[in-house]
What we know:
The protein has one domain (2-66, 76-221): A middle domain of Talin 1 (Up-down Bundle). The chain is 76% helix and 0% strand. Helix 2 (14-22) packs parallel to helix 8 and helix 7 (127-138) packs antiparallel against helix 8. The longest helix has 32 residues, at 77-108. Residues 1-14 have low confidence and may be disordered. By secondary structure, it is mostly helical.
Amino acid sequence: MVTLWHAALRGQGPARLARCTAGPRSPWVDAPPLFWTGPLGRAAGLLLVLALVAYLTWAWLAPGDAGAEGETASRPLWQSLIWVGFGLVALMLGARWLVDGAVSIARTHGVSEAFIGLTIVAVGTSLPELATSMMAALRRQSAIAIGNIVGSNIFNVLGILGVTALIAPIPVAARFLSFDLPVMIGASLVLTALLLLRPDIGRIAGVALLLTYAVYVRAAQG
Length: 222
């Protein structure tokens, strides 16, 4: 979300977003070592929040690409703010209803809470990003489509996790360290490579990413 705001405000292109993803130090590569130190306490939470502030400062001050992608009809700022507000409320309510229903079904069938969090809740809370990125891609606004995904992940790792750890320590289960965390790091590195090495992310890459996620879900369930 944070990179989406930055890209929308300054009209950044894909090359700019690739640089934001890869540097100055990737949060999803630098932050995970904190998980191996034991429960995430307030010191770790403060460090994550400060890292988010540093990243946002770097992203804002770094030079951007000239020109904006796509053509959108201009409207008064107050109308845009109203539409953004309504859209956010609708997305959050829809995602919450989906997650509540899916979690209830999963618990009825004896599915573990870890699996629920890694799959059902994760997919449900990512629906706003999916809807936003799909609309942006259909309008050929790749900076927003990609920036929405990248920014949301950065904010989740540094912002959400950091603020939560500041409020209360977060225990880290062993299975996250041995399996889920390496998968997250690998997925982040693959996305960074795609943004840096390819002019666009097409259907073949999209299918490959979806199949990889399906394999991960199957492995996590086992």
